[in-house]
Specification:
heterodimer, A: alpha+beta, Alpha-Beta Plaits, five-stranded antiparallel sheet, 4 helices, B: Rossmann fold, Rossmann fold, six-stranded parallel sheet
Chain lengths: 179, 576
């Protein structure tokens, strides 16, 4: 079965428990999440989640959006279409770097426009942001030097152009279809 | 106008303002502040004996009245005892509001005495829920809870209120505008979609209307009747939809599904167009999904868009209220020239005639459960509200009661909750005191929640309960007989020894009778009909090996239905 990676941007009311409600929905309906990130928005009463979901088919994706839309606290869901959205994730990686390899590691960091944010005698912490492909290409490149520790944020995304999530668009799965 | 009052007073006032007349519940530590002003309220609070009873009673009330049912419980175990009823209401889309006490807001999360995270526990089984920590938020939560429970696809809503929110002071303001930016159910079906549905029906050779609980929730039986007058086509009603169209109508082929009639199962399997309204293609209806109705196009109307395409892809989706949709559909059908569907109807008639629903073993000397249930229906009549538990007696009730009128059939369908019957019967009788309300229960189910008969006896709620006593967990035993080599692991209840149901019922303040023959059965049913000053329990002793037929074994194709043990129908579809 081929799985599709879909990025959904979900605008929710900023109320306690909303994250648990959404995570629980995915868990109990057997939907797979690749990553989920959540944070405040330009409005104090709303939060926005970026959910990267793995879906075996279009029907499953439709169920996910419909079930999410049923949650009273979900205000709007839009799908971030490939090529029409800016996506970023952030990694912090502690790389083994002794005197003999340090220069090579720093060269890679520079190539990927990463930043060294902490230095120790035999290791570096490096910060890299970018879309999934770039970040993971970097990880592949530095793997031979020794990754001691790795943390990654979920993906965040915004649709390109002047439209916002609260404007109507042909991609939106609107809360009008809600019960 | 604004007045200062406690959160508890505001809660009671808000309940009164949204029109609550009855609540079922049990007080306890954290909800005590609410029960004090409730004591002076015109709201009738019925003190039940177990919180599960309160939740099912609220469901029974809601189903019988079409209004929101209310149940209350204290924190911790009081609240967790509501869970089964909430889950049941969620599965069957019953509008109820549960109000639970919670520990003081500053103690939440400390594993305080009688603390349970009931909001977290009920996330997956409520339409929505609230945790209220400030008295200022109480009235709004109540208004929103009732709005959410009763609109769109109905369902249970829980409002958990911290004790200090009940005791704290707030200012009463009314009315409150509802502000739910993420909740806007689509009620009006799309004009063009409905018109297209009418055209698809007109073009179909073998159409079937597949209707269910959504017709009940939308109070859409009249609109359905109009469609059937305009375009008389074969129709099947799901377990939840029994009664929305009269069983006596020649085009009603009864209930489809695992224990459906051969004709109803055949109508769906052989159809070229299924017009599904207020149904959800549940696995108990479809059987093995991939082989369900293989040649049918599907028009699916539901107020919950998530139901459309969830199990079976829809060729024409229609989101909206069933009543509005059916009214529009009748209108559009009226503009079209419709074929007669005579050959299709004749085929289904022939199935119905050749494979009537198994009504008992003619060679068995014992009282037949099917016969008992048919008798209750005959004697009580079609104006009666019937409530059931879950299992064999439920299936027989679905087949053999007089399902002639809508909104009088209460059963636990989606969840299949044994123990639903007695408290739901109580709730229905409270909601419809002028109606005769019969609960038909099994001996297993009855033992789960019968304590509410004490509540009925003490509160002047004269329900009638029939116990179809086969001494076993009958449906489970039937599966053991058919699929587990007759190894009866833990299904013998020994109710021939204990309890003595007559004594038990009498001890709870009921009139109680027992019947072992058909003559006795008729006599006790007739006697029960004359008693209206207290609850009545009648026990019918039947054979433990009576089985429900027809049956589609779980997970198999509906084509493999058996109308009796090892007896498969001849579909003869080639002739069509």
């Amino acid at each position: 079965m081929t799985t599709t990676i879909t990025t959904l941007s979900v605008l929710v009311q900023n109320s306690p428990g909303v994250l648990a409600r959404i995570a629980g929905l995915f868990a109990r309906r057997g939907f797979n999440i690749e990553s989920l990130s959540v944070g405040p928005t330009e409005r104090e009463d709303q939060s926005r989640m970026t959910i990267v979901a793995l879906t075996p088919d279009e029907a499953t994706l439709e169920q996910i959006t419909k079930q999410l839309n049923k949650l009273v606290e979900v205000i709007k869901i839009i799908e971030m279409e490939k090529g029409k959205a800016v996506r970023r994730e952030l990694i912090l990686v502690k790389i083994h770097a002794e005197a003999d390899t340090r220069a090579q590691v720093l060269g890679l960091v520079d190539t990927f426009r990463g930043k060294v944010v902490d230095v120790a005698a035999d290791s570096l912490i490096v910060e890299v942001t970018g879309k999934y492909g770039k970040v993971h290409a970097f990880l592949d490149m530095i793997a031979p030097y020794g990754i001691k520790e790795l943390v990654q944020s979920g993906s965040v995304a915004l649709a390109r152009g002047s439209k916002t999530i609260t404007d109507k668009s042909k991609f939106d799965r609107t809360p009008r279809d809600k019960s | 106008m604004s007045t200062a009052m406690t959160g508890a007073q505001a809660l009671v006032k808000a309940l009164e303002a949204v029109g609550v007349e009855v609540a079922f519940g049990i007080p306890g530590g954290c909800i005590l502040p609410l029960y004090d002003p409730l004591f002076d309220s015109p709201i009738r609070h019925i003190l039940v004996r177990h919180e599960q009873g309160a939740a099912h009673a609220a469901e029974g009330y809601a189903m019988a009245t079409g209004r929101v049912g209310v149940c209350m419980a204290t924190s911790g175990p009081g609240a967790t005892n509501l869970v089964t009823g909430l889950g049941d209401a969620y599965m069957d889309s019953v509008p109820i509001v549960a109000i639970t006490g919670q520990v003081n807001s500053w103690a939440i999360g400390t594993d305080a005495f009688q603390e349970a995270d009931i909001r977290g526990i009920t996330f997956p089984i409520t339409k929505h829920n609230f945790l209220i920590k400030s008295p200022d938020d109480i009235a709004r939560a109540i208004v929103e809870a009732f709005h959410i429970a009763s609109t769109g696809r109905p369902g249970p809503v829980l409002v958990d209120v911290a004790k200090d929110a009940l005791t704290g002071t707030t200012t009463w303001e009314w009315p409150l505008a509802i502000d739910l930016p993420g909740y806007k159910p689509t009620v009006t079906p799309h004009f063009r979609q409905v018109r297209e549905a009418a055209q698809m029906i007109a073009a179909a050779k073998k159409p079937v209307l597949y209707v269910g609980g959504g017709i009940v929730k939308a109070r859409a039986a009249e609109a359905l009747a109009t469609v059937m007058e305009t375009a008389p086509m074969p129709l099947v009603t799901t377990l939840m939809g029994r009664g929305v169209f009269p069983d006596s109508h020649p085009l009603n082929y009864g209930m489809p599904g695992m224990h459906g009639t051969v004709a109803a199962v055949g109508a769906l399997q052989k159809a070229d167009l299924i017009v599904a309204v207020g149904v959800r293609f549940d696995d108990r209806v479809t059987g093995h999904l991939a082989s369900f109705a293989p040649n049918a196009k599907v028009i699916h109307c539901d107020i919950d868009p998530a139901e459309i395409g969830k199990n079976r892809a829809a060729d024409l989706p229609i989101v909206g209220d069933a009543k509005l949709m059916l009214a529009d559909l009748a209108h559009h059908l009226g503009d079209l020239e419709l074929p007669g569907w005579g050959e299709w109807v004749a085929y289904l008639d022939s199935l119905q005639e050749r494979y009537p629903t198994w009504a008992g073993d003619p060679d068995d000397d014992m009282l037949q459960p099917q016969e008992v249930i048919r008798k209750i229906g005959e004697i009580a009549g079609p104006d009666t509200i019937f409530v059931t538990g879950v299992g064999q007696h439920q299936m027989w009730s679905a087949h053999f009661l007089p399902h002639e009128k809508p909104y009088q059939w209460l059963t636990s369908g989606g969840a299949g909750t044994m123990g639903y019957c007695v408290p739901a019967t109580m709730g229905a009788k409270v909601g419809a005191p002028d109606k005769v309300v019969w609960g038909i229960d099994g001996d297993g189910c009855f033992q789960m929640t019968n304590q509410e008969l004490t509540t009925c006896a003490l509160n002047g709620i004269p329900v009638k309960i029939a116990i179809i006593n086969n001494q076993v967990l009958g449906m489970v035993r039937q599966w053991q007989t058919l699929f587990y080599g007759a190894r009866y692991s833990n299904t013998e209840l020994h109710t021939d020894r204990y309890p003595d149901f007559v004594k038990l019922a009498e001890a709870m303040g009921c009139v109680a009778m027992r019947a072992t023959t058909l003559e006795e059965a008729e006599a006790v049913i007739a006697k029960a009909m004359t008693i209206n000053d207290r609850p009545v329990v009648v026990e019918f002793i039947v054979h433990k090996d009576a089985m429900v037929w027809p049956m589609v074994p779980a997970g198999t194709s509906n084509d493999d239905i058996k109308y009796a043990r090892d007896m498969a129908p001849q579909w003869e579809e080639e002739s069509l």
